[in-house]
Amino acid sequence: xxxxxxxxxxxGRALDVLELVASAGREGARLTDLALGASLSKAATYAIxxxxxxxxxxxxTGDGMARRYRLxxxxxxxxxxxxxxxxxxxxxxxxxxxxxxxxAMTSRVAILDDGFAVxxxxxxxxxxxxxxxxxGRRELPHCSGVGKAMLAALSRETALNILQRTGMPRRTPSTxxxxxxxxxxxxxxxxxxxATDDEEDNEGVLCVATSIFDRAGQVVGAISVTGLKQVxxxxxxxxxxxxxxAAADRIAQSLGGLPSAEAWR
Length: 265
Hints:
By secondary structure, the protein is an alpha+beta fold. The protein contains eleven helices and eight strands. The strands form two sheets. A six-stranded antiparallel beta sheet has the order 5-4-3-8-7-6, sandwiched between helices. Strands 1-2 form a two-stranded antiparallel sheet. Strand 3 (106-113) and strand 4 (116-123) form a beta hairpin.
């Protein structure tokens, strides 16, 4: 809620003009169109634009009647700062709650920290089973669903360098411990857009995960669902992946990021 008595009318007009410039897209908008859209005189609109130009909030191209205005690079910087100030966990928690309610599985969101997967948010499934998923604990990326999903979203060289540094110890008989085998696994993950931890970290536990991307297509985190394999079953993996990818795309949209179908290309 805002107190209308403290609103600055001239600033409001400037923001109206800025919104109109934004809605014009890459081609930009002419002074005449902006003045008409903001219900202002051309002189007043021109003065506002000159102020916005001086601050880098808009940019201009062309001369005379062909002069057009579009958003400036300062808006990019401010947008990046706004996104950075939004905690991924805060945005992800509603989606995790919905996933857990829908699938009756534990949902998690993680980030990549120095090559390790770190869980920053979790919603436990109903019932007595509680998985070893302490918040803030570093997990080896080669045997966790979220870790493998984030590795697959990196350049292959970066991912393999991380694996060489963190190591690939055997956690269960199903753990992938060979670098070449993991290289092939990361390729499959990128192609299908989701990763699985099929009893690779803990026997009897199945996890399906996918990455979250920012507007530049860079991975910023991953979400997953986890359950007992004997309850969930391998046949459910495609349906689980579909639900997890949809949730990740909604989180990415909240961040101003790319959907997985575009980012994984």
